[in-house]
Amino acid sequence: MSQxxxxxxxxxxxxxEQANVAGMDAYHALCKHAEDDYAGFWATQANRLLSWKKPxxxxxxxxxxxxxxxxxxxxxxxxxxxxxxxxEQGLGDKTAIIFxxxxxxxxxxxxxxxxxxTCQIANAMKHLGIQKGDRVIIYISMSIEGVAxxxxxxxxxxxxxxxxxxxxxxxxxxxxxxxxxxxIITADHQVRGGKQLPLKSIVDEALTLGGCDSIExxxxxxxxxxxxxxxxxxxxWMTEVADGQATTCEPEWVGAEHPLFLLYTSGSTGKPKxxxxxxxxxxxxxxxxxxxxxxxxxxxxxxxxxxxxxxTGHTYISYGPLALGGTQIVFEGVPTFPDAGRFWKMIxxxxxxxxxxxxxxxxxxxxxxxxxxxVHPDRYDLSSLRLLGSVGEPINPAAWEWYYQHVGGARxxxxxxxxxTETGGHMITPLPGATPMVPGSCTxxxxxxxxxxxxxxxxxxxxxxxxxxxxxxxWPSMIRTIWGDPERYQKSYYPEDFQGKYYLAGDxxxxxxxxxxxxxxxxxxxxxxxxxxxxxxxEIESALVSCTELVAEAAVVGRPDDTTGEAICAFVxxxxxxPTGEEAxxxxxxxxxxxxxxxxxxxxxxxxxFGDNLPKTRSGKxxxxxLRSVAKGEAITQDIxxxxxxxxxxxxxDNH
Length: 656
Ligand code: WTA
What we know:
Layout: H1 13-18, H2 24-36, H3 38-49, E1 60-61, E2 69-70, E3 75-76, H4 78-91, E4 95-100, E5 106-110, H5 111-127, E6 135-139, H6 144-156, E7 159-162, H7 169-179, E8 183-187, E9 189-192, E10 195-198, H8 200-208, E11 217-221, E12 235-237, H9 238-242, E13 254-255, E14 261-265, E15 273-277, H10 280-292, E16 301-304, H11 311-323, E17 327-331, H12 342-350, E18 354-357, H13 359-371, E19 387-391, H14 397-407, E20 414-417, E21 451-454, E22 467-471, E23 481-482, H15 486-493, E24 503-511, E25 518-523, E26 527-530, E27 533-536, H16 537-545, E28 551-561, E29 565-574, H17 581-598, E30 607-610, H18 624-632, H19 647-654
Parallel strand pairs: 4-17, 6-7, 6-8, 8-11, 11-12, 16-17, 16-18, 18-19, 19-20, 29-30
Antiparallel strand pairs: 1-2, 3-13, 4-5, 9-10, 14-15, 15-23, 21-22, 22-24, 24-25, 26-27, 28-29
Helix pairs in contact: 2-3, 4-5, 4-6, 4-11, 5-6, 7-8, 10-11, 13-14
5'-O-[(S)-ethoxy(hydroxy)phosphoryl]adenosine binds next to helix 11, strand 20, strand 24 and strand 25.
């Protein structure tokens, strides 16, 4: 019997009736269209969903594989597609964004207002010398101004690179240097969970760390209003440079392949890589998945809880819902402030109809609701909801069922969307009015996406057998290259193992023997997923060993965690004798803070264990699979005959 046989939730008939893709026959027909005429399928979507200044004549150019181009001779502007065309169609007074601040204050921007503000910021940027092709770093928290800043970049053809507000000065510096950005758009502070956290002073610090000579200006949005240092000539208040600008700005019509943005993400080796996305193909898939996966309709109130610092916030806040003229929530705060009922209260207050969040948030809210009845979703009126979504990590069936019953009232389909920074939008996901759902499975590929599971040689594995997730054909919203490092792009995503033919996602997966449904089994490289955030183990190791006065060697692995999915576990050899007791605690704190400074608080290891050495093979290679077992606290069952120093395992197991 299949592991899934007993739990299948069918989309409710009332949902199917009104769905953008209604029923499995409709889903199969779309897949068949893509199979029969791959280019034609994507061209149809791109023509239907986007407004082109100059139409494209060639859909896919694969002559430079694996560097693919889509719609390459077409021209368009992403901001025109997200704003102007809706205003031109009479939707100027429609609410584009309902913003709720950390403290609960609500403000709104209509499409006409968002367009005006975008134009003012775009004009201010132009006035300060930003031109098509320049890079602009955005280091800001969730705000209307943040979304407008992204749109303003798109409007003038500048390539934005948003850096999540939780990254440290050092991480910010690395991204400034790698992008060669001319401008940073930031705020004085960000406000989260009742606390004021600095942004501008972190920018200042980053700019003193070297390698940032490309930066000419820092635009500062006033959020807290508290005093911050402003360097004359370099730093400018956004209100002072933008408020007096004209509220119109001719969009820069760019080629479809023009880089809309760079977004840094962790890989298995080295420093984070700047994933480069296109304008045409990316925006098309952002719009298409918003239409088909989220079933977005004119009257919906859509809420994606991600931060604009991550890809989910790019595709499903800044671009997808706006490209379709939808109304959405932008939330500044955190799910647990002032209490863990915040999400439910906001759904109730704003009559949210489509809600998209991460399993880690759901799991922590389950815990909170089980502890405190007042924050249980059953206490709120969530009847406005009609669709739920999940993203970022596997959702365990128990959390899925809770989400389904208690948040969705057993009437809302759940779309468990598998995708990545590199894929630009959804890859494997149910379509809510079509696909029968199985908790814990992201079900079937999005129409047109040729996802498959293969072995190490690239051969398809039969259903029921675990393997490596690949995508067999290029698709419009895929990563174009790694900024400044095309070789790394080719090696990471189109490796020789598959003769350079398949896109390697970096995840393991298995298809159910009967249904063919996909379940993602997790990363097959050295990338951890902590609370839905991607972290490279190597990055954390480098951060630890950069504490040169203390650390001789470090190895980082993940261990399963009920709430955060994975927890970071570091094994450290110090330059001094192995500490125990109080001293070990103190040094662990110093190291945690050090990692926080090097990368950001999200990378701080949960566990730090000290050893006289690390388990190594005779040739000196650290045996990470053993460390994974030690981290989990499980008995070592692996073959340890190649291990140079077996005694070290007991020491590391004892020591925590
Ligand atoms: C994981 C986030 C299981 C996966 C959009 C992937 C998932 C990585 C799911 C990408 C899901 C994302 N089920 N695993 N529904 N969604 N992942 O780049 O390991 O931050 O490779 O993009 O998250 O993370 P990223």
